[in-house]
Amino acid sequence: MKLSERSRFVIYAVGIFVCYFLYGIVQEKLTRGRYGDQVQPDGSIGQRFTYALALVWVQCFCNCLFAKGLLMIRPTKEDTTHTGYYAVSSLTYLLAMVSTTMAMRWVPYPTAVVGKAAKPIPVMILGVLIGRKTYSWTRYGCVLTIVLGVILFMYKESKVSNLPAESTMLGEVLLFLSLSMDGLTGAVQDRIRAASSPSGQQMMVAMNFWSTLMLCVPILVTGEAKDFLSFVLSHPEALTHLGLISVCGVIGQFFIFLMVANFGPLACSVVTTTRKFFTVLCSVLLFGNVLIARQWLGALLVFSALFVDMFYGKKGSKPASAPRKTSSGDGKSKTSELKKLAS
Predict the structure, then answer these.
(1) Is the sign of the CA dihedral 102, 103, 109, 112 positive or negative?
(2) pLDDT at 268 (0 to 100)
(3) What sign results for the dihedral spanned by CA atoms 92, 98, 103, 109?
(4) SS3 for 54?
């Protein structure tokens, strides 16, 4: 039985929410926990996991193998996407991830929240400029309302930061770079969908393959690969956490690429942005914490915008370069050609 478009959207969104909720919990255990009982130079007990590039490499490698396995089990039509599209998309994806990680070291919490919540905006803008997308005014309004609602809900008044102005400015530049790279990634993915419409598995294989290759250079040149292997061999319990992260990441990214392939990068960025909002909201409700008026307003804006976008936002949203139907004596032949172009 073929599921409706709305049912598939809900399934993909729930899959992303659940997988990355578990992913975040295990990732915190890995990156914030301590392994072993050795006394460190600062007097603390146990070593910390600090191999961010190696961690991303492991995830990309596992994602690539998983998607490749799915394609072997259930082959699909040949992917005719130009290799350059995947290479550029993988590069901008990695730059966005690295920039965000680095920025968190130099900006206060509120700035980071605002930056991450605004991700759908550059995705939409660059999707129009580069990906040749058009969106209805309703969708523009819904996306901006969701971003505003998430910011109002997640924002926490920060105590005065002791970071120097130069460091804070560097962090803000990195956040801007990350958002720009997110927008470019979405724009290139829109071009990929318009040009060849690959399946989610095909996009997942190609992007993770290129990401794995690109990450090989820095982790080998910096010596991080050797240190990473030494760490996991010395602390086998870290392998358990790595395995759980990889499983959650693989399934979560599988749903992400299904979302991108079927509904586009903008829909995916809106889902991943609201994921954090719903995660915190569930935590608040489960543990009986009190929401202040600003957070209730943010929640109301998010739910209202999601409801409106679900029913009205897709009207008028289409690629600007979509083929137009033409009349001809050979109607069946033309219809067949249009279907091929659209598939």
Answers:
(1) negative
(2) 80
(3) positive
(4) helix
To the nearest whole number, what is the mean pLDDT of the chain?
A: 77
| DSSP per-residue string spanning 253-305 | HHHHHHHHHHH-HHHHHHHHHHHHHHHHHHHHHHTTPPPPHHHHHHHHHHHHH
pLDDT in the model for residue 88? 92
DSSP summary character for residue 119: T
3-state secondary structure of 43: coil
Residue 324 tokens read as 């137009």
Q: How far apart are CA 192 and CA 257, in angstroms?
A: 12
10 Å CB burial of residue 302 (0-12, 13-18, 19+) is: buried
Confidence of residue 167 (pLDDT cuts 50, 70, 90): low
The span from the CA of 89 to the CA of 249, in Å, is: 19
Predicted pLDDT at 21? 81
